[in-house]
Specification:
The chain has 71 residues and is of the alpha+beta class. It has 3 helices and 4 strands. The N and C termini lie far apart (35 Å).
Length: 71
């Protein structure tokens, strides 16, 4: 997601989980001259619990692993 500088600063400072809002596995925020939205295949594998495409450990992403196997 490429945004003009004023919007990029606003998005970056926000506590919102943009990947969840946009219903995607990952969001990369960039600064540019105009709005640009590009979708690409995510790196990683599908988490067995949340189905997001992320790097996995024991079949789970970091977030799900922390819930299933709390320390």
């Amino acid at each position: 997601l490429t945004l003009p500088p004023d919007l990029a600063d606003l998005f970056a400072a926000s506590p919102v989980d943009w990947a969840s809002v946009l219903i995607v596995s990952q969001v990369e925020l960039n600064t540019g001259t105009q709005l640009e939205i590009r979708a690409e295949k995510a790196d990683g594998e599908k988490c067995e619990r949340c189905w997001k495409i992320l790097p996995l450990h024991r079949g789970l992403c970091n977030r799900c692993e922390a819930v299933v196997y709390p320390t």
